[in-house]
Design brief:
The structure is a single chain. With 318 residues, the chain is an alpha/beta fold. It contains ten helices and six strands; from the N terminus they run H-E-H-E-H-E-E-H-H-E-H-E-H-H-H-H. It has a six-stranded mixed sheet with strand order 3-2-1-4-5-6. Strand 1, helix 2 and strand 2 form a beta-alpha-beta unit. Helix 1 packs parallel to helix 2 (51-64).
């Protein structure tokens, strides 16, 4: 039985920042379908720790539209997830006052889940950095290129599947690794526009300096590093972006003064981030990825190297 609530620190932090985008999306849903039902899919629901806030926001937004619409939620996670806990949490919360229809679906989010053209809204409290397959690791060992390729394939499969399942005008709220300043991470909810997303995952080596949420609504949209920092601060991260900002801004100042090099800044920042997330990532890979401790530690080294490589880019310091 999967039980990762106590270890899903990053998942909960991402969810805190993602909520406002779910609210915005729920307020701009397409016209109601013929049966007046708003259909919602949550991927990676875990045991419902984040599902209540998300579902409540959607129900309230639908009610505020002044319609007699009903809401149907499908909570998705891997087959061994304890969906009874999800339903218990949701039904014991204020969500029950809206009398929604609740479904569960035990299946990988990297596969087709719902009939095409059915959904009004899709979201996930898990960032799309989770790798769908690590079977190659045991045989071939950790490889930066394989990690990057796997991440790129995963996000392409996920986005393509969800796009097929959304109705015309439906909304997809996703999270994925942060992008350099001034560069759009996503254009719109159509497969042909995700080439840039694939490039970003490859460029960043499947490692992420910061998490960035994108509200996908058909128009170009990007956020600067300062905006991401503000969002993190608002979300009250335990490991908040103040550490990233302080290191980055202090490092940039010292670099301009000639006291340190870009290599010094990159190493310092990568060491800090690696130490923060090492135990979370390695325990997650062992418990839910089926890796041995040594394999998980080797994979952490690959991620650390990828992060260091990303931080060596001068544009990171702008």
């Amino acid at each position: 039985m999967t039980n990762y609530n106590n270890k899903a620190t990053i998942q909960r932090k991402v969810a805190a920042n993602l909520l406002k985008y779910i609210i915005e999306a729920a307020q701009h849903l397409p016209p109601l379908s013929s049966d007046n039902c708003v259909r919602v899919l949550e991927n990676a629901c875990s045991h419902g720790v984040n599902s209540v806030d998300f579902a409540l926001a959607v129900c309230q937004a639908v009610t505020d539209r002044g319609t007699s619409a009903t809401v149907s939620f499908t909570f998705n996670d891997l087959p061994d997830n304890d969906f009874d806990k999800v339903l218990d949490l949701v039904l014991s919360s204020a969500v029950a006052d809206f009398n929604p229809t609740l479904h569960t679906l035990g299946k990988s989010m990297y596969s087709p889940l719902i009939a095409p053209g059915t959904l009004d809204l899709v979201y996930s409290s898990a960032s799309l950095h989770w790798l769908s397959n690590l079977s190659w690791l045991a045989e071939e060992g950790p490889s930066l290129s394989k990690v990057a390729n796997q991440a790129r394939e995963d996000i392409a499969v996920y986005v393509s599947s969800r796009h097929e399942e959304l109705r015309q005008g439906g909304k997809l709220v996703i999270s994925f690794p942060g992008v350099p300043d001034g560069e759009p991470g996503m254009n719109s909810c159509f497969p042909e526009d995700f080439k840039r997303v694939h490039e970003i995952v490859a460029e960043r080596g499947a490692a992420s300096l910061a998490w960035m949420q994108k509200y996908c609504n058909g128009s170009d949209y990007s956020r600067s590093r300062a905006e991401v920092a503000s969002a993190f601060s608002d979300a009250d991260w335990t490991v908040n972006l103040m550490e990233l900002q302080d290191i980055e801004e202090f490092g940039a100042s010292d670099f301009r003064a000639g006291r340190i090099t870009l290599e010094d800044i990159a190493i310092r920042t990568a060491d800090m981030l690696t130490s923060v997330y090492r135990s979370t990532f390695t325990s997650m890979w062992v418990e839910y990825g089926g890796l041995k401790k040594g394999q998980a530690e080797d994979l952490m080294i690959v991620f650390s190297e990828a992060l260091l490589q990303a931080l060596k880019e001068p544009k990171t310091l702008r």
